Amino acid sequence: MTSAYVLNGPNLNLLGMREPEIYGKSTLADVERSCWEVADELGWALEFRQTNREGELVEWIQEAGEAQSAGEAVGVVLNAAAYTHTSVALQDAIVGSGASVIELHISNVYRREPFRHVSYVSPVAAGVIVGLGVACYPLALRALATLSGHG
Ligand code: DQA
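That is the input. Now the predicted structure with DQA docked in place:
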């Protein structure tokens, strides 16, 4: 069965409690459920994960790239959270692994502080979905389906 990876970076485990005026009241478990609805519809398995560690995100992107090369995965929906704005390692992992990545941000980072306007992921992402709240996640999975022709 084809898999899609949905990878979440630091502090997204706090979704629902953390700055709800910015990120909303849905929890990460709610987000995972909404992703499974799309995955079930598309006949995909889902690797839905969260970590607070940069190196773990790097390893998961490498894993996704390998799975994609083997024809076992369609790519990655990546909310790298704060690492988006700092991580050369994530950019290198995306390029090095060949994983197709849809970058995602729940909030509209371009309406926020200038440091959030910089993304190390965007230049190597297939596409970017930003600022539509947690509705970004199912949209990003559908974007992966369109991109990969696995829809
Ligand atoms: C975020 C935006 C980032 O700037 C921030 O550091 C996050 C979440 C978002 O989903 O809106 O942790 O990626």
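The two ends are 13 Å apart (CA to CA).
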